[in-house]
Amino acid sequence: MPVVDVHTHMYPPAYMQLLRNRTSVPYVKSFPDDPTAGDRLVILPAEDTASTSRGRPIGPEYYDVNEKLAFMRKHHIDISVVSLANPWLDWLPSNEAAETARQVNDDVERMCAEHESKLYAFGTLPLSAPAEQVVEEIERLASLPHHRGIIMGTTGLGSGLDDPALDPIYAALEKHQQLVFLHPHYGLPTSVYGPRASDYGHVLPLALGFPLETTIAVTRMLLSGVWDRFPRLNVLIAHSGGTLPFLAGRIESCIAHDAHLKKLGKLENRRDVWSVLKENVFLDAVIYSEIGLKAAIDASGVDRLMFGTDHPFFPPLDESETEWLSVKLNSQAVQSALEDEEKVDAVMGGNAARILRLPG
Ligand code: URA
Ligand code: ZN
């Protein structure tokens, strides 16, 4: 049974060039006068402070395919399904988005073809372009031999994933059975982290902002009836579903007790969160603990969970560590949540091979 990493990012060369040409978020800036600063990746407004410690360091692990392959060898990963890292193409002017998406997706397709049976990909959509152009790219991606779906954030066309204007896009994704890898980027408004947030590094936005952003986005999709209109739309939710497996009962109870929804007749003939979790949702195993993983398994079933690493994010702070702690925590969680070896193999790769049509 192969070990498959379904949550692993890259900024392919075509995208790196775009970031290097920019001076506002998102951008990559090099500091030639300060060799200790190196290249810095700045993707969030809150990281864009006027110092050489702005953003985070970015090296070849973000864009060099050989680094990805070396990481895979070190961690005994046979196949990686790579996706563009946040913030994808969300920020592009509308008239440049479609052509850029084609270039970036073709760049990734070429890379996968050069490493046959090792690399597959989730493509990127030009979401700032008119919906027809987004649909065209979905159709094109469906014909690329190494692509297995798309990655996107939570903003949709600018006003979230409950926007009815997304319907033609959801229809195309459903028609072509393109899995949507839903991944956070924007977190929550920084005010919720309080006046001392900067004392705590990136912990609050990454540990809490990211999963809550995802949870809110999926709940809005549910409330707006996306899965009632598109019952075969499949979504791989990052970080073991944000907090959805844990909060599903509360979400359903709040719906069942909502007088406004009742008055609008929205409590009848709706698919509930439990059925969506079991029939439309796949979850990655990027949750770093047995407890979160068990909640994900209970909510969606062990056959819908897929191992991931989030490489190249969360590298070891001590560079002498060869095996990454972030990877070890996720694979140990799979082992301890599931003592049955067959189920462990399924989560580590068998499920991904079946769901994403990868070499088994
Ligand atoms: N930080 C990010 O910005 N993206 C990830 O995918 C993980 C951590
Ligand atoms: Zn990620």
TrEMBL record:
One of its GO terms (biological process) is secondary metabolic process. GO terms for molecular function: carboxy-lyase activity; hydrolase activity. Keywords: Decarboxylase, Lyase. InterPro entries: ACMSD (IPR032465), Amidohydro-rel (IPR006680), Metal_Hydrolase (IPR032466). Signal peptide: none annotated. One of its GO terms (cellular component) is cytosol. Gene3D superfamilies: Metal-dependent hydrolases. SUPFAM superfamilies: Metallo-dependent hydrolases. It holds the Pfam family Amidohydro_2. The keyword Lyase applies. The keyword Metal-binding does not apply. It comes from the Eukaryota. Residues 4-358 form the Amidohydrolase-related domain. Belongs to the metallo-dependent hydrolases superfamily. This is Amidohydrolase-related domain-containing protein. The lineage of its organism: Eukaryota, Fungi, Dikarya, Ascomycota, Pezizomycotina.
